[in-house]
């Protein structure tokens, strides 16, 4: 009976892990719909191509090398991971049935695929920030380096047992390890690529460039919201006992509460500032609430989770306005959603997690940002000098769909020339 109990628990935890993986993979569709809705019609096919291909490339590269960099069998030090390729064998029945604290409680392959979709999500953050002007294949070239080494190194520092984990840095599901990390890489790309033509006037004015399909963007938000239950819930890693089942349920409640509060708070602030309820702020408010609670979705009460999410919604509105003042053009607000809200979320951990310290959270945030920004900047600068990053003025004016992909998303609305 004991062996049967161990096998059932292993099977249930593995199945739960895999279903959460499916939800996180579904976030790829959310990113694609969100970004396609927030760009102009002439750039729709290209941004969809970016999202589809980056997912495929991320999965291949993470399988080949990224996973073993992030979770090395023989790390060089707490700062430098080891280097290995491909995946080893999965857990044996004997190791599972041995029981005890060291016995595996879910499949190693389930762990890999869960981490792989996290890696793809991190790279997806970059695609929206450089939409409408960064060329497709230089972007995908950067994705190889991002998923093979840049992201896995800082992931190792926390989740692979590196120096940030040893320091006590607390980040449950990745407000900094995933979201701010992706935003730091996106910031480097935005600086090197530059703003879209016509976005900023000579007198410092900010010219609106509306997206082509806000219903699609709203759908993307809800897909991401749904996927986040797997993102945060799956990070609990197990469910096959009463305490873990209750923990997962609490994570779902807190994740939902934070998203709802972030959405409403951002909408209210936008209404107060602009006199109108800006749908893009509503969308990004929900996503900012989700990012903010990701650092610690288990410890807070539902009430505190609501407050954390609401503040995240306020932060994202202020951040979007600040980036525009700095002339950092981010068409979808990715840097604000994932970066600014991620920073807020990592320090919000101090409100409920007694194991977190201000120094630990600060060091973890700064170290992750510096590494992700600097490494990304160097790689992107090399790509810029060798391949080029930005489309020509003519290509930008005509749209990237025709020049990069040879087709348009809405051909029935394209006038014959």
Enumerate how many helices there are, as a single number: 15
State the name of the first-level CATH class. Answer: Mainly Alpha
Mean pLDDT equals 94
Q: Strand tally, please? A: 0
Low-confidence segments, given as residue ranges, are none
Alpha carbon gyration radius: 21 Å
Kindly state the percentage of residues in helix.
55-70%
Beta-strand share of residues: under 5%
What is the end-to-end distance?
75 Å
Task: Give an overview of the whole structure.
The chain is mainly α. It has one domain: Ammonium transporter fold. It is 69% helix and 0% strand. The radius of gyration is 21 Å and the shape is globular. The termini are far apart.
Summarize the SSE layout with pairings:
Blueprint: H1 2-38, H2 44-70, H3 93-97, H4 108-129, H5 136-158, H6 163-167, H7 175-193, H8 214-234, H9 242-274, H10 279-294, H11 302-325, H12 334-348, H13 358-386, H14 393-398, H15 400-405
